[in-house]
Design a protein that fits this description.
single chain, alpha+beta, four-stranded antiparallel sheet, 4 helices, 8 strands
Length: about 240
């Protein structure tokens, strides 16, 4: 009897543990929570507004001015600045029923009701590689899903997000990029005073007929022409004896 009670208790504890583990796994792997965790990871902050459906989602963080989109339940994401968001469209059965664009008046939804085709919320970004992101709010066959929305609820959610997008676009002003600084004028510096120039003394012009070498020697002067001597006359009194006689 004791063994039977002990076995029943062990089975009850094991069942409780398995149930708790399964509930925790379901809670942790919930689509909405996975997408929110992915947004918190890529934007480094908690999302202020999130919409998701069919494994895709869009999230916004207004404190950091960021928007993120997710595929495959947050398996991979893209991050944009909110000022890169151009607008959004609500497409019902292939027709654009409501839209809002930056700098334009919002086109409200005129006909509200049910739909037989897809209800798509399309976001447009100023990006050449990934210019848009489509979020299917409802598709044929979703009525069989557990807790799946009806077409009317999907249209209402899409119209509510169109209104919210108008407020986001009006709030997110484009980033003012700093204008390039004008080129600074070069400072004109005073020219330094000219250095005194020392000129070598110029040699006096030499006689073209003088072919003396240019080293420091006494100039060789040519003998001047001797003056023409006059014929000497003999003194009559050269001899003293003759002068006394």
């Amino acid at each position: 009897m004791d063994e039977t009670v002990r076995l029943i208790l062990w089975l009850a504890l094991a069942g409780t543990a398995v149930t708790f583990a399964g509930s925790a796994a379901i809670w942790f792997m919930d689509e909405d929570r996975r997408i929110r965790r992915a947004f918190r990871h890529v934007m480094k902050a908690q999302s202020d507004a999130v919409i998701n459906a069919h494994g895709r989602g869009v999230g916004f963080n207004f404190s950091r001015n960021l928007a993120a989109v997710a595929w495959d339940q947050g398996a991979w994401c893209l991050v944009y600045r909110i000022d890169e968001l151009v607008g959004a469209e609500l497409i019902i059965e292939g027709d654009v029923r409501a839209r809002v664009y930056r700098g334009e008046a919002r086109r409200p939804l005129e006909q509200r009701g049910s739909a037989n085709g897809q209800v798509i919320l399309r976001f447009i970004f100023d990006d050449a590689r990934y210019p848009d992101f489509e979020l299917v709010l409802w598709a044929p066959g979703d009525e069989a899903r557990r807790n799946g929305p009806s077409p009317a609820q999907a249209i209402q959610d899409g119209n509510r997000w169109i209104t919210r997008m108008e407020a986001i676009l009006r709030r997110a002003a484009p980033v003012q990029r700093p204008s390039p600084a004008p080129p600074s004028q070069p400072q004109v510096r005073a020219a330094p005073p000219p250095e005194p120039k020392f000129e070598a003394p110029q040699a006096e012009p030499s006689d073209p007929l003088d072919e003396s070498p240019p080293w420091d020697e006494a100039p060789v002067r040519k003998p001047a022409r001797q003056a023409q001597r006059e014929p000497r006359t003999r003194d009559l009194f050269d001899d003293e004896d003759e002068a006394l006689s």
